[in-house]
Amino acid sequence: MSDRGSAPQPPIFNLQAYSPAEIKEAVEKVGVKKANLPPLASFMLAIVAGGGVGFGALYYTIVASDADLSFATVRVVGGVVFSLGLALVLVGGAELFTGNNLIVMAWASGKVSTGTMLRNWTIVWLGNLLGSLGLVVLVFFSHHLDMNDGAIGLSILKTAAGKIRPDMVTLFVKGILCNVLVCAAVWLAYAGRSVTDKIVAVILPVSAFIAAGFEHCVANMYFLPLAWLLIQPGHVPANFDASSITISGIVHNLVPVTLGNIVGGAGFVGAVYWAIYKAAFGASYPDGK
Question: Is 60 exceeded by the pLDDT of residue 198?
Answer without folding.
Answer: yes
